[in-house]
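Example (one chain per record):
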Amino acid sequence: MNIKIIATFAAVAALAMGIRLVAAEPEHDDGRGTATAEKTLVLQTTCPVMAGKINKKLYVDHDGQRIYVCCQGCIAPLRKDFAKYAKKIEAAGETVAKLQTTCPVMGGKINKKLYVDHDGQRVYVCCQGCIDTVRKDPAKYIEKLAGKGEVPVAAPQAVEDR
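Predicted structure:
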């Protein structure tokens, strides 16, 4: 059999079984002439309180980090001891998300006066030019942030007229 066919079959089989395939961590120069391995991000999928599947609409933000939970009942324990649950997530090999600090288009520092709201999330950008780019496909840029372990903040809720 051709080696490419075997490799393709193995990859499909692994995906079908739910196995995460992680490429070798690339090395890069850390600025001091030393090669270091980049950390592979594994996004949080499990509630650190009850071990259930996370609900992306339920979370607690603390000191620039976000932890998702499975249900309302897990919010109070998480608020009480955020650090304990952050350590639990990291010990499980998952990444505690951090709140957005970089522009998903250009990679620069965000300007909190420039943003696009999409599906209850506020995506900040670095400059006026990036706003139109994000507006064209906001979900793409939210996903791009997630790939770096960053998440947008929640967009403020509009107050309804009574």
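Caption: The first helix runs from residue 3 to 16.
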